[in-house]
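Record type: monomer structure entry
Structure origin: computed from sequence
Chain ID: A
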Amino acid sequence: MADDYDDITSGIDYAQCLNGYDELIRQYGAPGKRLLDIGCGTGVDAVGFRTLGYSVTGIDFSQKMISRARVRPGAEGIRFTVADVRSLPAVGLCDIVTGMGDLVNYLLTESDVLDAFDGIYRVLASNGLLIFDASTACNFRRYAEGYVRTGPGQVDSWSGAEFEPGARLVRRLDRFTSRNGRDWKIGTYRNTVRHYAPAAIVSMLENSSLLPLGVYGMRRGHIQEGVDEEEHRKAVYVARRWDLPAARTAHGCTGCSAPWSLRGMLAR
């Protein structure tokens, strides 16, 4: 999929998403500008964060994705590495870790998610921030029910099986492309993803000693207060290393497992 990835995701407003992440980083505060972009794909987000002034390292499981990221315009000075988020290598301490593009949905067991969160905890500097997004139930239903996206010389048809909350979903993309409008070729891609409810993700963050600070809804790249799984296609999570007492008291979390304000966000 690496060769077609940028075309397949061309409908995403990356600039808006990046600005939203940048605003959350500024809102919650980070100890520095060292940023690790997990699941960086072909490097669109990593280059965007560098443009915003961050010192960026990007990792992805796919060698093909990393190869394309390394030659992306603007990628000069960004370190790209092939790595598995479930067993993060020593990449140096990071002030911010980001995971755009449904990071946890590609991790198919809770054990995988916990391994990823544990690794993120280890690479985060003291008081460092983790910000990532995940697809919600309504987005999973969209894939399960199927939809078609068209553009110049291309038709993308997504389909999947029946969706069950908290379960896995095999997504299929049939991609029709033509350079002249007459001769068409088809490419078929499949991947497996898993839905996790916001409360489950918050619980796993806590179990990995990451302090959940907020859960937001995302609509067309715009980050909004509160999350509704039936209205927002994505949820955006913000967490901080758990080991600073000051971080807990600053967000109303003395002696409790999660901030009371976060509980309210999840109840919406």
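Annotation 1: The CA atoms of residues 212 and 239 lie 4 Å apart.
Annotation 2: The mean pLDDT is 87.
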